[in-house]
Amino acid sequence: SELPDSITMRVIPGAAKDTSAAVRAAAVRVMAKVGGAATITIARDMFQHDSSDEVRVAALATLIQVDPAHAHDALASALTMPSYRDGIQNAAFEGIIQTNDTGFIDRVDTAMAKQEFPAHVLAVLGARGNVRALDLLTSHLNDQRAPVRRWTVNAFANTMTRVNKGVTVLRLKAALAGITYPDTRQLVTDLIAKLEKP
Question: 27, CA 20 to 30 Å: which among 39, 47, 89, 173?
């Protein structure tokens, strides 16, 4: 059975200082279920100062859940934090989707130069109706960098289709004539055909 919140909050601060990163990460995740000012204080401290990327990621998730009013600030910090395999930045991208924070669209777009995940963030925000996110994503169908074009098609195919298939088809059809790279035009042509199959 689950411990009462009062007991949890007596036990957790000790676990939050454990020498094992896995224990600290678990502790800060449990605190998200309790909430309150103490949780926010501890989670914020762990997010800003813990030596483990895993713990910072868990602390960020807790902050988004228990302190939504300041989630934007936490996400802004996370986007600038260096981490192994961009773990903290990826957690921030997930947080942007979770909070539907469209204030980060330009920064997400810039991050597409380095990795694929931001394309999927733009796809989700675009499918939910944000015109700027959709326009930026569509513009990358003509990106001079082949990997970015491929990531963009993937984002339409795998993410945007799942959120809003109708908008995906309409946008790809509208963009098709303007796609200058033959390889990308073929990928989009094939994707439209696949999506329109009954």
Answer: 89
CA distance linking residue 86 with residue 102, whole number of Å: 21
**Lookup: tokens for 50:** 């813990």
Distance between CA atoms of residues 45 and 14, nearest Å: 14
> What pLDDT is attached to residue 6?
60
Question: Taking the mean position of all CA atoms in its chain, how far away is CA 100?
Answer: 10
Element (H, E) at 51: none
Residue 36: Cβ within 10 Å count: 11
Please identify every stretch of the chain with a pLDDT value under 50, giving residue numbers as ranges.
1
* 0.85 surpassed by pTM: yes
Instruction: Note whether 54 and 90 are within 8 A (CB).
Output: no
